[in-house]
Amino acid sequence: MCTQLQPIPRDVCMHVHRHRPRVLPLSAPESHWCYEIQAQASNYTCLGPSQWGEDCQKSRQSPIDIVTTKAQVDPDLGPFSFSGYDKKQKWKVQNNGHSVMVLLEGEASIAGGGLAARYRATQLHLHWSEKPDRGSEHTLDGRGFAMEMHIVHEKEKGTSRNEKEAQGPKDEIAVLAFLLEAGSEENYGFQPLVEALAYVPRPKMNTTMKESISLFDLIPKKEKLRHYYRYLGSLTTPGCQETVVWTVFQERIQLRRDQIFAFSKKLYYDKEQTLSMTENVRPLQPQGQRHVFKSRAPGQLLPLPLATILVPTLTCLMTGFLR
């Protein structure tokens, strides 16, 4: 997951002379981080996920497998407040060499949802595969999905609830993660982005969407966004800084199969267009001692003792009324 707005993020430049996990031929050019599919390609000399340096070997990394039955209900995880998510715009799109990125330029923001501050949207990008269960970075109960979309937000300065939270570096970035799966119908909200892919096949290429869309056009309806999982983790690309508060939504987004395949078919990792951009997914990381929380789900609104009292009471009242 990249958070920079430049065509090639600064953290791409992880030089071999700083991190030398394996010996390279003297004639090899400087190596950068890459995904496993690139590391396995014969014409690539790059550092795959197991060799990433900087913070990538620490203990609070992302993504993880979310075991839904072990997630603890947190009553503070209420609904989000979305600002600017309804604004339609012809967004800028770029191939940054690792994903396709949409530059959001701080036009939208989020608050609520158990977050300690307001966060402003900087960019969104996706991860994907041609295989229906290999394209998401996070998994639910061991199940992967065709794609995963990350909407990346940075904390607004001076909006934390208290000074202690403002000093805490664990939540400088808030990422809304959406899992995508194949559906039978075309997703019209996504189509302008899908059509833009043809204009950015190679790294460092930029274009602008031909049609205006809003962020709400890309994500599930607002009433479907009340159910989500929350944990503290990291960026999923080098330097893997552990500064991310993750929100992984339960409700899936559906794209038609040809829309999903367009990402693998139209985008390339290299300028020569020899290696299709696909499988751009970091392997799962250990959860360790971290807790995963979840928002309160339907049917959990009443504590059990209160529910056992109310149901018979309501039954008696209805019976008396019907008489």
Q: Give the total of beta strands.
A: 15
**What is the mean pLDDT?**
86
Task: Write the element-wise H/E pattern from the N-terminal end onward.
Answer: HEEEEEEEEEHEHEEEEHEH
* Rg calc: 22 Å
Shape-level CATH architecture: Roll
CATH topology: Carbonic Anhydrase II
Quaternary structure of the protein: single chain
Question: In summary, what is this structure?
Answer:
The chain has helices at 36-39, 163-167, 191-196, 257-266, 304-322, and strands spanning 65-66, 72-73, 80-83, 92-95, 100-103, 109-112, 119-128, 139-140, 147-155, 173-183, 206-208, 228-233, 244-249, 253-256, 293-294. It has a single domain (57-298), classed as Alpha carbonic anhydrase (Carbonic Anhydrase II, Roll).
Q: What report would you give on this structure?
A:
Keywords: Cell membrane, Disulfide bond, Glycoprotein, GPI-anchor, Lipoprotein, Lyase, Membrane, Metal-binding, Signal, Zinc. One of its GO terms (biological process) is bicarbonate transport. InterPro entries: CA4/CA15, CA_dom, CA_dom_sf, Carbonic_anhydrase_a-class, Carbonic_anhydrase_a-class_CS. Its cofactor is Zn(2+). By secondary structure, the chain is α+β, with helices and mostly antiparallel strands. The protein has one domain (57-298): Alpha carbonic anhydrase (Carbonic Anhydrase II, Roll), CATH 3.10.200.10. 14% of the residues lie in helices and 23% in strands. The protein has five helices and 15 strands. Strands 2, 3, 4, 5, 6, 7, 9, 10, 11, 12, 13, 14 and 15 form a 13-stranded mixed β-sheet that branches. The protein has a two-stranded parallel ribbon with strand order 1-8.
